[in-house]
Amino acid sequence: MKILSKIYTALIFVFLYAPIFILIIFSFNESKSRSMFTGFTFKWYGELFKDDMIISALGNTLIVAAISAVVATLIGTAAALGIFSMNNKLRSTLMSVNNIPMVNPEIVTGVSMSLLFVFAIGVLNNIGFECTLNIITLIIAHITFNIPYVVLSVFPKLRQMNKHSYEAALDLGCTPMQALFKVILPEIMPGVITGAIMAFTLSLDDFVISYFTSGPQSQTLPLVIYSMTKKRISPKINALSAIMFVTVLVLLIIVNVRQSKDKESESQRI
Residues with Cβ < 8 Å from 145, sequence gap 6 or more? Predict the structure, then answer.
């Protein structure tokens, strides 16, 4: 049974990652052929940085990912602290509500946020402000869908924290704000950092929500890749997709390493 389970697991990973590895291999192909490898070259990676549309999309992607990750981390951490301070019944209810956006289909979230922005833009246009979908609506959308993931990363750290640490700090003369910054935040900081990295990663490779909430001047890399695939598939798409995959993979490895270190430190405390 162990051999069969290992074979089954190996087959799953092959089906999942074989197409990605083929894409990466052909991103170094000298010709534009998608079926024959004719020679090794970095030409297509060089072509990426000569494409103004891709450079603009890269800038938009990094700006959106960075701002949304920072804001979502601040709001999500504050929300986790607020939820943790409530009674058990209300806490479990709010955590269930927090989990709904994560299991909700992205297309539903994207369409609903698009309708909300279109309605708000219509109201603003009627009172004299000329607005349209742009990078601001894109950032707001990314902040919105990132917050639940930050809450989910921070909340377990609050549950692992010694409940009496905060009260002891107050008894020793700390103000509530001093106790928050000197006692609670250092304890939950691993969860905060993990949530921030996860939010950045989710924003980096999001397509569906970006598709419905971005404007013509705020295209991100996934949207540019999609628009490029409508034409004949260029090896530049392979190179760009390979870079995005490696970037996301590195970020996920960092998150997993941090989580494993946190578990080791918790087991050592126990």
Answer: 101, 106, 109, 202, 206, 209
Q: What is the pTM of this model?
A: 0.82
Q: Does residue 23 form part of some domain?
A: no
Q: Is 21 a domain residue?
A: no
Find the domain containing 249 and state its range: 51-269
How many separate domains does the chain show? 1
80 and 158 Cβ atoms separated by less than 8 Å: yes
Q: Residue 257 falls within a domain, yes or no? A: yes
CATH number for position 82? 1.10.3720.10
Radius of gyration of the chain (CA): 23
Residue 214 domain-assigned?
Answer: yes
Q: Give mean pLDDT in consecutive 10-residue pieces for the chain, a chain of 270 residues.
A: 79 84 83 77 83 86 94 94 88 89 87 91 85 89 93 89 79 82 86 90 89 87 82 77 84 78 62
pLDDT in tens, 205-253: 889 999 999 888 888 988 888 887 777 667 788 888 888 888 888 888 8
